[in-house]
């Protein structure tokens, strides 16, 4: 799947709107859209209308870094229909806010090679199949950055 394309195919659907800033040129990369409170500086993903810390309504849109570090992860061996198993799900930390944790699938790595502290980068990929519509669900995921050792599968 081409990671920088903007238009979905007829048999695809977004997992949720307004989570991603899609690339406008081949030189750009996708970015997660977050919110930063004008009052207390708290960063949230997805972006919220009101700050969860101080209840301020002045939330500025920001884009998270393309890379993050795995804080914690689990390997899912049983799931609802539509997910490829095993499925690696991780909590990721971003440099924009040390307390922000974002949950994401981790792709393109064998489960036994994943480790906490590993640097990963944002990709756009198939997350699952929607068993009601038959469409592929497309959204954000992460994969190891170049330089991390990935066992050939």
Q: What layout of secondary structure does this protein have?
A:
Elements: E1 12-14, E2 20-21, E3 31-37, E4 43-44, E5 59-63, E6 67-76, E7 87-94, E8 97-106, E9 119-129, E10 136-144
Parallel strand pairs: 1-10
Antiparallel strand pairs: 2-3, 3-4, 3-5, 6-7, 6-9, 7-8, 9-10
Q: Unreliable runs, pLDDT <50, ≥5 residues?
A: 1-5, 149-153
Beta-strand portion reads: 35-45%
Q: Per the principal axes of the C-alpha atoms, what is the gross shape?
A: globular
Query: What radius of gyration results from the CA coordinates?
Result: 16 Å
Question: How many domains is the backbone divided into?
Answer: 1
Number of helices: 0
Helix content: under 10%
End-to-end C-alpha gap: 18 Å
Sheet bearing the most strands, described?
A: 6 strands, mixed
DSSP E strands, number: 10
Helix-strand topology string: EEEEEEEEEE
Mean pLDDT score: 88
Classification by helices and strands: mainly beta
Oligomer: single chain
Give the strand order, joined by hyphens, for the main sheet. Answer: 1-10-9-6-7-8
Structure report:
This protein is 0% helix and 44% strand. With 153 residues, the protein is mainly beta. The strands form 2 sheets. It has a 6-stranded mixed beta sheet, with no helix packed on it. Strands 2, 3, 4 and 5 form a 4-stranded antiparallel beta sheet that branches. The chain has one domain.
